[in-house]
Amino acid sequence: MAGHPANMTQNHPAMATAASPAPTVSSQDHPAFANDPRQQTPVGQSPQDPIANGKPTFQQAPQIVQVTSPGPSSGLPPASPPPLPEGWIAHMDPNSGQYYYIHLASQSTQWEFPKGPTPLNLNEAPMSPIGSVYSSHPMASPGLSAFGKPMASPGVPLTPGFESLQSPMVGFSGPPPSSGMDMYKTAPTNGVYFGPYLRYTNMDIERGIWLGSILLVADAAQPPTIHLHQSVDLSPNPRQLKAVNIAVHQRWTFYKYEIDIQMEEMGPAKWTYAITSHLGCTRYEFLVAGRHETNWRFIATSGNDFSINVNANERARLGGVGVMWKDIMQKHNEIGGFHAQLCLGGQIYADRMWKEIPCLKQWLSISGKEARKNAPWTAANQQDVSHGYFHYYTSHFDQPYLRESFAQIPYVCQIDDHDIFDGFGSYPEHMQFSNMFKNIGRIGIEMYLLFQHHTTLDILRNVNNDMDLFTITGTGWHFVKYLGPGVVVVGPDCRSERNPHQVMAGPTYQGLFPKIVILPPSVQHCLWMVSVPLIYPRLETAEHIAQTVATGKRAVTGTYNLLGKVTSSVAGVVGAKEFVGSGFDSVKRAVGKSGLMGGILSPFGEFDLMDELRDQWTHESKDLERTYLIRTLQGIAHQKSLRMTFLSGAVNVCGAGLVHDPSNPSDHKTMYQLISSPSVNTPPPSYVVKMLHSSNKPLYVPANGHKSSSSPTDTKEDMMEIFQTDINGQARENRKLMGRRNYVAIVAYDPEVVAATPYGANTPPGSRPKLSLAADFMVQGEGAYASVVKYGPVIVPSLEHGR
User: Fold this and answer.
1) Where along the chain is composition biased (Polar residues) (predicted)?
2) Average confidence score pLDDT of the chain
3) Which of 235, 266, 626, 712 has its CA 20 to 30 A from that of 680?
4) Contact 143, 157 (CB under 8 A)
5) Is-contact 100 93, C-beta < 8 A?
6) Strand order in the sheet with 280-288
7) Burial class (CB in 10 A: 0-12, 13-18, 19+), 376
């Protein structure tokens, strides 16, 4: 960390020369760790030592059951098994004639009659799209009755590809499933291809060209044909787009169709693309802004999937995946179209792989840190994990309303941990640098690049410009994109270089900042797509959290450490440990954690809550780096008259904050933080939102190179009180954060035009209009059928010259 610029107090390197050439990266290593040092197990601590740092570690792990047949039967078929505990089904082994038992959530099998609901102490229901363990039929969809008929409420739509699981007689031929591949049957809704996925690449400002691409994933012998034309142009010879084969997964081919459109001089235009396959023709329409148009409309979302700890009943209560996406499409049609959607991470929650893929569960059962770190990566691992990611993307992106949105609103995507798995990059070195983690990360990034950016590492390494993705150190892929001539969105990859001590490497900052410095003078707003918020309430101390959890639910006596374990010799506190532990699960949800780190990937008790909080910008391990980023952007804002704004998600609440100089509220030190999360995942309980409001201690951003403290400086940090009332109109006590599903709708506009003041009347010739941003928080009401409630707008003004 000595070389990281966050630890230095000298002037920012953005004003100096560019970074040195990127080091060579081996294609065999995970790109996120090509340049990172490998740290060894601390001296004096055995990898298998059950006591580490004074904390007991648990050697109990998920068991891989070795199934041996009980031998030939007596010739008579066994009687039907008695009623099974929830979450189990029975199957007859054709060889022995005996029943064996399958646990749906974990896919483990055994000959012994199950004595409890779960052999792995998994207290959640199985992942979507497998049915709820609470339904009367163990394999029934949560949206179907026990007889397979639709329920009165819509429930949760089945993920395509799991139709075979509707019958308990299909999908299992004998104990146990041999690979993760056996779990996933891949089939698109239309029967031909997955997609289309419409992506916004960039705008060529000088030539006025809109750049994008369409991705189809098909198993047909020939790629589907796509024709493109202006919606008002009904000429018989529309332009045909070229299909390029960029990747193959099993029998599925990824076809990319590049789009370049000359933008209109006078205003926006609707464009239509038609996909033709052997099943017929399907048309989609999208909006392209005019070449000089500044008032782009766009949305921001994150948390676009359910985490592993959300059971099927909770998913159904919220209305499933599509509620907020249905509203997005309604607004899209009402207002004439969004020009883009900014996806702030968490498009899928791949955390579930650790429960579903047998080879990963087997790795978790290995004893000893070094043994797990050095366990070999096999071809079977590669096959199972690759197909797991492929299934998660194709099945989730095929959900109603989400599917239509991705086909008609061009997307710009950013990576976050759940796109790989929860907390990736923040684990201890013996796990983060293990063969298993490195290769899962490699595959996760490859699939992220394919589905969210329509590209591959091989393609990117042969690109010689930064119109789309670019790398600085050879690790991580970043972007700078124009949303019209007045707004730029910057996407730094805050995951690939992350480790327990940093978010991004020093050279990455030194390469990113000059790209902002050289932006043309027409740009007034710079939006930073940083998945985890930089400005957010602090979860301060173990005592603070424990006390809030205890008093927020019921009175519990005793002293607790961060894991919720009783540390004092308190007698007679029945259930206190379990209660406080469940409370901390909710705390994790408030910072976007699914519990994967401490719940599944830590069967040995190696993590505590603060390990999970380490993934936050506001954690002390990232403090200097956070200050460095904020202070440097303030300097660039002053030099360029650019208003800096952070767009973030990940924390399962929405809200707005800012850093500002109270004595000069409109100057360059004012930077806004807009938080939109989640669009699909479940929010934290109300008492956790209350906890996030509980600290009234003033926060200040220190000078560069100094640690944060409560000492006043020229930059104060605040959350804005924008949620004065709840969705039912009642006054709210906690007004800074809203714990409901949401998205943010943003429009760039000229305040003088909106105020009906003739533009140019009071403006000197040659000057630019003042461009502001208006952000509305669109929040889901109570229940699956409730209307969406608007909060805002939060106005982000332009920055005047010299301020």
Assistant:
1) 37-48, 56-68
2) 76
3) 626
4) yes
5) yes
6) 239-240, 225-230, 269-277, 280-288
7) exposed
3 state DSSP class of 322:
coil
- Exposure of 366 in the CB half-sphere (CA atoms within 13 A): 17
What is the 3-class SS of 476-516, one letter each residue?
Answer: CCEEEEECCCCEEEEECCCCCCCECCECCCHHHHHHHHHHH
On whether the CB atoms of residues 135 and 375 are closer than 8 A, the answer is: no
Average of per-residue pLDDT across 171-178: 37
Q: Please answer whether residues 261 and 290 qualify as being in contact, where contact means their C-beta atoms are separated by less than 8 angstroms.
A: no
Query: For position 40, what pLDDT does the model report?
Result: 38
H or E element: which one contains 94? none
Q: What is d(CA 158, CA 166) in angstroms, rounded to the nearest whole number?
A: 10
On whether the CB atoms of residues 526 and 488 are closer than 8 A, the answer is yes
SS3 of residue 718 by DSSP: strand
CB-based burial label for 136 (10 Å; 0-12, 13-18, 19+): exposed
- Using pLDDT thresholds of 50, 70 and 90, give the confidence band for residue 113: confident
pLDDT of residue 80: 56
Is 449 exposed, middle or buried, given 0-12, 13-18 or 19+ CB atoms closer than 10 A?
buried
> CA-CA distance, 719 to 658, in Å (whole number)?
6
Cβ-based neighbour number of residue 72 at 10 Å = 10
Higher local confidence (pLDDT), 590 or 675: 675
CA dist 474 and 31 (Å) reads 8
Q: How far apart are CA 456 and CA 246, in angstroms?
A: 7
Can you state the angle between helices 542-553 and 576-590, rounded to 10 degrees? 110
> Do strands 716-719 and 654-660 pair parallel, antiparallel, or not at all (unpaired)?
antiparallel
Q: Two tokens at 18?
A: 């560019």
Query: Which of 486, 495, 479, 502 is CA-nearest to residue 442?
Result: 495
Please state the rounded mean pLDDT for residues 739-753.
Answer: 94
For residue 7, CA distances in Å to 10, 181, 519, 789, 802 come to 9, 46, 27, 44, 29
Q: Name the least confident of 111-115, 346-350, 576-580.
A: 576-580
Amino acid residing at 81: P
C-alpha R_g of the chain = 27
Beta bridge partners of 664: 661
